[in-house]
Specification:
CATH superfamily of the domain at 5-172 in chain A: P-loop containing nucleotide triphosphate hydrolases
Mean pLDDT of chain A: 86
Largest sheet of chain B: 6 strands, antiparallel
Oligomer: heterodimer
CATH architecture of the domain at 5-172 in chain A: 3-Layer(aba) Sandwich
Strand content of chain B: 15-25%
CATH architecture of the largest domain in chain B: Roll
Number of helices of chain B: 9
CATH class of the largest domain in chain B: Mainly Beta
Radius of gyration of chain B: 20 Å
Largest interface: A-B, 51 and 38 residues
Strand content of chain A: 5-15%
Helix content of chain B: 40-55%
Number of domains of chain B: 3
Distance between the termini of chain B: 38 Å
Largest sheet of chain A: 7 strands, mixed
CATH topology of the domain at 5-172 in chain A: Rossmann fold
Structural class of chain A: alpha/beta
Low-confidence stretches of chain A: 1-10, 38-46
Order of helices and strands of chain B: HHHEEHHHHEEHEEEHE
Low-confidence stretches of chain B: none
Strand order of the largest sheet of chain B: 3-8-4-5-6-7
Number of strands of chain A: 10
Number of helices of chain A: 29
């Protein structure tokens, strides 16, 4: 996607899709281009730009922009969209509007009209609006704004041909909104200072009056310092007349104006009947009924990912495909073709790239992740995820986060490495750091979880409850402390709830494939790197040195057998391998129940795999990564030691 | 009610306050803007009592500031009252409020303020000076305008004002259509506030819900 990014940006004819979040923009994009895209319900998922050539004209490039609620940027996403409109040479803009949420959509329409760009108003999800008793006089809308209006139902591919035809003769809007006198005067003054650009001076003047800080870069490129301070003075003069920020005042005036248009163009008939999806939607966030639904959803996910993915599929891939075919065959080929011993070992030895890294990445993690991605995609597209965020919001408030953080946390149960990357959807640096830390510390990934649950089931339910209790305690306490220590602030919890919908199989497949592609490209190389490090350590004898050094802690403090040290060490490089090492000790009867519990708690808290560590460096920087690790290492052992002490002191029978 | 003389002084104090908000204290401009033909001589009479004149500029004395503040408070509260309760059009609100500002007693002013939910700004967005009632929590008057957190699930309300702690939050709410004049419906309060605006369901923290004040519709 990225390689030909630059090349396509040069093509002349550009059609840009713009719209609020959750209006089906990506679905329209998919229908117009036919190339694969990510379609998502959860706000903030469409961070990357999607581009593709139109099916109706190979010369036309379509650009899908992140969902925005205003062209006055308040987030990075919104800035991206505004910058495209500001800087690119655009043939046509297709504004996708959720027909049932016309008011919010037209707020953007006014801004597009002001920019003077040719555009089409696309009323999508027209069926949902109709079923809610909302009927829109699209002719009236066309008259008001002076642009074409096209109704579509993207999920049923309705109205797309019509949309394509209208693209050719799109035009700039004739609509001109009149603001209050002071603002209009300010616009006139600023227009006199501004240089010519792709979009109208009036719209830029309005952005500047509204106090758009994201424009400063553009300003410094095009204007002198003197002019910039002149503009700022004009702005301040207007602001003096108001107590509230001008951006808000402008927005309010726009909405007042819109309400006049809506009165003419929209009629509502009362439909008191609740649809089934509304009923489910409202039950799933009910303070009482929401809880069993949450538990049920998690249970289904466990059945699908934890049992089908992590057990059935992994057994088949690891045991049959890799165990019986790929690995024996590779060993034979490598030994036959490459007579050098060390290279043989590097490829197919105990810590070999094929026998360890690829087996691990493809036979153990991939099946788990694939099932997890499918389940997650269904949750996303059904609209359940934001409701899950509502259910857990208060608990997350305790640890300085809000319900939105549930997304990476749940993902962490699949793969912490991937989850660390998705912390990008969180708004502030503080939230990202806290989630990254908690993921590394106390959220076991699916591969590890499988082994842990297996081992605990061999002990007792009580041991399982203690293990889970310790994890939850650690999450809450460390989260709470981190929220006090990490500077910065949390973000507002304002979350849009899309309606509960039946997920489309096609979208789930497309999305899962895109995520697997990401995994193969981004995460698998890290597994190979980790294995190489392990291989080197082993070759130069560093493994046994570290083992020797760590033994006193493991044996004396944790009360575990010496052999467990190796499991911890390997656990850093491959998290589930560490757990598997412990599992082998358990099988050999070398661990009593308390030792099993202590070793599992320590192992879970221990830094996740090396791939995750690299991802932390990539996302948060070296400094924070090192700080986190130097906290987690001793912390895991201290908690393990305390647990060991308590269990023995109170002579707990597990 | 005061004499004609007092009323003229009140009008000028009000004007000086308003212009000071706009950053203008110049005596000549005040005289120009005033409807009173005798503004200059009234101002001279006020000097050293409610105002003092420093060079070209007019400034309040402590006493003058206090009087002006209470006039402005009455005036802007009256504007709120007229637009919220009697739904007067905004262009008439100012004139009518001018009559009110002279007749509201301090007790009635505080009751009006409480009734309206202690609004921070007038319908034109200018700040209303705070009164004693705003800091004290008492609900002798059943307020007409309440925070979303005081609504019950199922209640509908028209947003009257929003008192955010941060401007960024106001912008964000605004772009979602949450501005004065919009109608919202409270869906639930627990585990998190969910409101419906248009056909959009929005989840909000209690802290944010608390800052949105509405006038209940029906019921």
């Amino acid at each position: 996607m990225h390689q030909h990014h630059k090349e396509v940006m040069k093509i002349g004819k550009k059609v840009v899709l713009v719209g609020n979040p959750n209006v089906g923009k990506s679905a329209i994009f998919g229908l117009l281009t036919g190339r694969y895209v990510m379609v998502s319900n959860y706000p903030g998922t469409t961070v990357e730009l999607m581009q593709g050539y139109a099916t109706f004209d190979k010369e036309t490039l379509l650009i899908d922009t992140p969902g925005v609620n205003s062209l006055l940027p308040m987030s990075e996403d919104e800035k991206v969209t505004r910058d495209i409109l500001l800087n690119e040479e655009i043939e046509t803009v297709i504004q996708v509007v959720d027909a049932k949420n016309l008011r919010r959509g037209l707020l953007i329409t006014i801004q597009l009209a002001e920019m003077g760009l040719p555009f089409i108003l696309n009323l999508n999800m027209e069926d949902e609006a109709r079923s809610r008793g909302i009927s829109i006089d699209s002719k009236k809308l066309s008259e008001e704004f002076g642009v074409d209006t096209v109704a579509t139902v993207a999920t049923q591919k309705k109205g797309i041909n019509n949309l394509v035809q209208k693209i050719r003769d799109s035009r700039a809007s004739s609509y001109r909104m009149e603001y209050s006198r002071d603002i209009e005067e300010g616009i006139k003054k600023i227009e006199g200072i501004l240089p010519d650009t792709n979009i109208s001076k009036r719209s830029i003047a309005l952005m500047l009056i509204a106090g758009d800080k994201s424009l400063s870069e553009w300003l410094y490129k095009h204007l002198s310092k003197k002019d910039i301070s002149r503009i700022e003075k004009i702005r301040l003069d207007i602001q003096r007349g108001y107590d509230e920020p001008l951006g808000y005042i402008i927005n309010t005036q726009r909405l007042e104006c819109l309400d006049g248009i809506l009165e003419k163009a929209v009629t509502r008939s009362e439909t008191d009947t609740f649809t089934i999806s509304e009923k489910i939607g409202s039950l799933s966030m009910h303070p009482v009924f929401g809880v069993p639904i949450l538990i049920f959803v998690l249970f289904l996910m466990y059945k699908f990912v934890g049992e089908f993915g992590a057990q059935t599929m992994v057994d088949y891939f690891e045991g049959v495909i890799f165990g019986e075919y790929v690995n024996p065959w590779s060993i034979k080929v490598v030994e036959a073709l490459i007579p050098v011993g060390i290279i043989q070992e590097l490829l197919v030895g105990q810590y070999g790239i094929i026998t360890m890294a690829l087996t691990y990445a493809l036979a153990i993690i991939l099946p788990v992740l694939a099932t997890f991605f499918i389940a997650f995609g269904i949750l996303e597209d059904s609209g359940y995820l934001p409701r899950l965020a509502i259910m857990v919001n208060r608990a997350f408030n305790v640890i300085g986060l809000n319900g939105k953080a549930v997304l990476p946390m749940v993902l962490g149960l699949g793969c912490d490495t991937m989850a660390t990357m998705t912390t990008r959807i969180l708004e502030t640096r503080k939230e990202r750091i806290i989630v990254t830390l908690l993921l590394a510390l106390a959220v076991p990934c699916s591969a590890q979880l499988g082994v842990i649950l297996g081992m605990l089931s061999g002990v007792s339910l009580k041991a399982g409850i203690i293990w889970a209790g310790v994890m939850i305690m650690v999450l809450l306490v460390i989260g709470y402390l981190a929220s006090l220590i990490v500077p910065g602030k949390g973000s507002d919890f304002i979350l849009e709830l899309p309606p509960i919908r039946m997920p489309h199989l096609e979208n789930i497949v497309v999305k899962t494939l895109a995520r697997i592609e990401w995994y193969l490209k981004e995460a698998v190389p890290l597994f190979i790197l980790g294995t190489l490090i392990l291989f080197t350590f082993d070759k130069i004898g560093l493994l046994s040195v570290i083992e020797e050094a760590a033994s006193p802690v493991v044996v004396g403090f944790l009360g575990l057998p010496r052999e467990a040290t190796a499991a911890f060490l390997i656990g850093f490089l491959r998290r589930d391998y560490g757990a598997a090492g412990l599992f082998a000790l358990q099988m050999d009867g070398m661990l009593d129940p308390i030792q099993i519990l202590v070793s599992l708690v320590t192992m879970t808290l221990f830094v996740p795999c090396i791939a995750n560590f690299f991802m932390i460096i990539k996302e948060r920087g070296v400094k924070i990564a090192i700080l986190m690790v130097s906290f987690i290492f001793p912390f895991a052992f201290i908690i393990g030691g305390i647990l060991n002490f308590l269990l023995r002191y109170f002579e707990v029978v597990l | 009610m005061g004499s004609i003389e007092e009323q003229r002084i009140d009008e000028l104090l009000e004007l000086i306050w308003t212009m000071e908000e706009e950053g203008n204290r110049v005596m000549e401009d005040i005289v120009d803007r005033s409807d009173d033909d005798m503004a200059r001589s009234v101002l001279e009479k006020m000097e050293n009592d409610t105002i003092y004149i420093a060079g070209e500029e007019v400034k309040f004395t402590k006493k003058g500031k206090k009087i002006a503040e209470s006039i402005i408070r009455r005036h802007r509260l009256a504007e709120r009252l007229l637009s919220e309760v009697f739904e007067l059009e905004s262009k008439n609100v100012h004139q009518e409020a001018c009559k009110f500002e002279h007749i509201l007693s301090p007790e009635v002013t505080d009751s009006v303020c409480t009734f309206l939910g202690h609004p921070p700004v007038c319908p034109h967005g200018k700040p209303i000076p705070r009164g004693v009632c705003c800091t004290r929590f008492k609900k002798e008057v059943k307020p007409l305008v309440v925070s979303i957190k005081d609504l019950e699930p199922g209640d509908e309300g028209r947003i009257v004002f929003i008192t955010p702690k941060e401007h960024a939050r106001l912008d964000r709410l605004g772009s979602l259509g949450i501005i004065p004049g919009s109608t919202i419906r409270l869906h639930q309060k627990s585990p998190t506030y969910v409101i419906k605006i248009g056909e959009t369901d929005l989840a909000l923290d209690r802290e944010i819900a608390k800052e949105i004040y509405v006038k209940k519709i029906g019921g």
